[in-house]
Design a protein that fits this description.
Blueprint (H helix, E strand, L loop, with lengths): L9 H4 L9 H5 L12 H4 L24 H14 L4 H17 L5 E3 L4 E3 L8 H9 L3 H9 L2 E4 L2 E4 L4 H31 L26 H31 L11 H11 L4 H10 L5 H12 L5 E2 L11 E5 L2 E5 L4 H6 L4 H10 L3 H6 L21
Antiparallel strand pairs: 1-2, 3-4, 5-6, 6-7
Helix pairs in contact: 5-6, 5-8, 6-7, 9-10, 11-12
């Protein structure tokens, strides 16, 4: 089976200068798509300029070693070989296009109360194009971003959002759609790959674990991927060296056991133990009044005495808060924004619009496990029973 270790959701809507977002975004604009279904860009309401889409154009947009046009051809072939239905394939393309188009939605302040609004929602606007790709009404979707329904006690009320809150909510929905789409793709591929009627072939696989990241600025994305690389390196060492050596001994071969991988264990334990780094992050994320500063202080109080938890050593980020001695090197991290990135909530009112009104079958399926919101309030709700 294909297993997902980590999807860097934040990279869907934000990249550093040296980073690129996921390759599929750049493939969708390639000329090979003109021959797919009467024109992929037209079907996905996309221009031919990647810089029209802020979510995927903040870092690198072109990698010299990658031919995006050729890669789109491979993607299209893979959809067909793996047995995706034509509608599933186009729903996939369209929802991916929606994710990058969400970034063009802009809000402005209305009145003195700093309320967000977005007046232009026609079919040629970013809100209109995004809503069309999601199969929903653009005015209803934008209203849900600006004035979501929330439950206060036993009653449902409308809560106006600021421009910042509405913009963040758009990003949260875009990341959540891509995340759910990615996991659905994995499940769909696994369903095909375990088909007993297909001819099986043996092959050797190579695990590429060269994804360790040390940038000028290292944040939540870098510590997440570096932790995953620690885990993958440990998995690789255990199966390639530890298990292999045990086989030698079991077969009576003279062999002096060599210890591989204990250098990684200290960092992994620091991340995973009770009141380790991940546990502290989860705990702080649950506190409404927690801040980046309180999170930093709790990390240093709980982990500061560990030999691999170090003072920041970055020459390029003078505001870094701490460093970790990983197997691949020492990395200084900046905790700014980690709590928000970890929570990454979604607007339930927008989700309910997807669930109850979308004409895109796949989008409805992707949110099937989400409770959404009641579309109407029961008469009894909000009324106290008389004694």
């Amino acid at each position: 089976d294909i297993v997902s270790y980590l999807l860097e959701k934040s990279r869907i809507t934000e990249q550093q200068e040296v980073e690129r977002s996921y390759h599929i975004f750049y493939q969708l604009l390639q000329p090979y798509g003109d021959g797919i279904g009467g024109g992929l860009r037209e079907k996905c309401n996309l221009s031919n300029d990647i810089y029209d889409y802020i979510y995927v154009s903040q870092g690198k947009t072109k990698v010299e070693s990658i031919d995006d046009n050729e890669e789109l051809e491979y993607t299209e072939d893979a959809f067909n070989v793996l047995g995706f239905a034509e509608q599933e394939k186009f729903d996939c393309y369209m929802l991916t296009a929606a994710v990058m188009t969400f970034g063009g939605i802009e809000f402005k302040t209305k009145g003195r109360d700093d309320q967000a609004e977005c007046e232009a929602v026609g079919p040629d606007t970013f809100p209109g194009k995004t809503a069309a790709l999601c199969g929903v009404d653009s005015a209803a979707m934008i209203k849900a971003f600006c004035k979501p329904r929330i439950k206060v006690g036993t009653e449902w009320v409308v809560k106006s959002q600021t421009c910042e809150q509405a913009t963040n909510a758009v990003g949260g929905i875009a990341r959540a759609i891509f995340d759910r789409l990615f996991k659905w793709l994995i499940d769909k591929c696994n369903d095909t790959l375990i088909d007993a009627s297909l001819k099986k072939a043996n092959f050797c696989a190579v695990l590429d674990i060269a994804g360790f990241e040390i940038f000028e600025y290292n944040g939540f994305e870098q510590i997440s991927i570096n932790f995953v690389n620690e885990k993958l390196q440990q998995f690789f060492n255990h199966h390639m060296f530890v298990v292999e050596q045990e086989t030698y001994v079991g077969e009576g071969i003279e062999w002096e056991m060599v210890d591989f991988g204990m250098d990684l264990q200290a960092a992994i334990v620091m991340f995973e133990k009770p009141m380790g780094l991940w546990a502290i992050l989860e705990e702080e994320s649950l506190f409404p009044k927690a801040t980046d500063k309180s999170f930093e202080e709790k990390l240093k109080a709980s982990l500061g005495k560990l030999p691999i938890f170090l003072k920041p050593q970055s020459k390029t980020d003078k505001h870094a808060h701490f460093a970790i001695s990983h197997y691949a090197g020492i990395v200084s991290y900046n905790v700014t924004g980690w709590l928000e990135k970890n929570k990454d909530p979604v607007n339930d009112t927008v989700v309910e619009i997807f669930k109850s009104t979308s004409t895109i079958t796949l989008l409805v399926h992707l949110w099937a496990d989400h409770p959404g919101q009641p579309t109407s309030t029961p008469k009894e709700e909000g009324k106290k029973k008389k004694k």
